[in-house]
Amino acid sequence: MNNEHKKGKEINKDRRLNDKTMHKRVLVVGGGIAGIQASLDLAEMNIEVYLIEKGPSIGGRMAQLDKTFPTNDCAMCILSPKLVEAGAHPYIKIITNAELESITGQAPNFEATIIKKPRYINEEKCTGCGICVSKCPVKIPDEYNKGLSKTKCIHIPFPQAVPAIPIINKEYCVYLKRGKCRKCEESCEMKAIDFNQKEEIIKINVGSVILALGSEEFDATLKDEYGYKTFPNVMTSIEFERILSASGPTQGHIQRPSDGKEPKSIAFIQCVGSRDMQLGNEYCSAICCMQATKDVILVQEHIPGVKTSIFYMDMRAYGKDFDKFVDRAKDDYKARYIHARISSIEVNPITENLIVRYATDYGRIKKKNLN
Questions:
Q1: What does the pLDDT look like over 314-336, one tens digit per residue?
Q2: In the prediction, which pLDDT does 22 show?
Q3: In 8-18, which positions are buried (b, 16+ CB within 10 angstroms) versus exposed (e)?
Q4: Which end of the chain is less packed: N or C, by CB atoms within 10 Å?
């Protein structure tokens, strides 16, 4: 046994020594805050990094946040310098609008196949001047603002985006669908608009791969008892995050989508889509309790005196001193935590006020009116 083990170690050692295709290169999959930070750390060690992101720019979910818990620091103030640093670093190659198709080989010699989708912009020629955006006549739902506002068919995802290069939405582009318009192309002095751009396959040899895939947003329409997309005043946490943000669709003014008025009471429903055996998501998302607690504090800062309630199954404040953050919301911001699972949400058809129906710990059915 010892001889076989020794022989195996020698074979592996010889393989490493003789492997001339060993790459000191890293592929980072996912351009959110985790992928960006991993890329910067590697690049500071003089390691070449390929950072790929399926969206048109890096930044991920953090780019949509207003504040971060438990310090309530500005999310973009933290993220933006890292975006700039990653975009300018000589050891980091950013590939956006791309997805990892496959990885073959073994360490330290992998071959990654990447599919880069067309953005219909020549990234080498584009200066990011934005003239093409101003000339585009087509307005579409703004994905960055979760459809709560409009943007142009050709647009830069958000002001701090890296790369600061527009993308054309082929689903709405008049020229790509009907062969008419081309106003963006006519206005571009750099001739960077390329309607003939095709899907591109890129192959990269790397020695290591980091998967920083981020999170997937739950489709709240699957819980139809809550009326999401049916009642206008029911929204997801990320939609509410955009409303809180000064760069959001309401410039940070909290308004009811139904009538534009300031709300007098707001409820947060926890565990929607998680800890749910019917949906196959039996796990805790680990962030929702803190997310709602942060939002309660921010709401009070925006609209002092507004009534806030958090309906929760179990309070799971993961992290150092996170429980103190929850206590602060209760004591200083008068947040009301209600241990209950919401059975349904109804609406007053005249006022669009919501009515939350829930069961208490003692089995009593209660209703809470939100206005």
A1: 999 888 899 999 999 999 999 99
A2: 56
A3: eeeeeeeeeee
A4: N
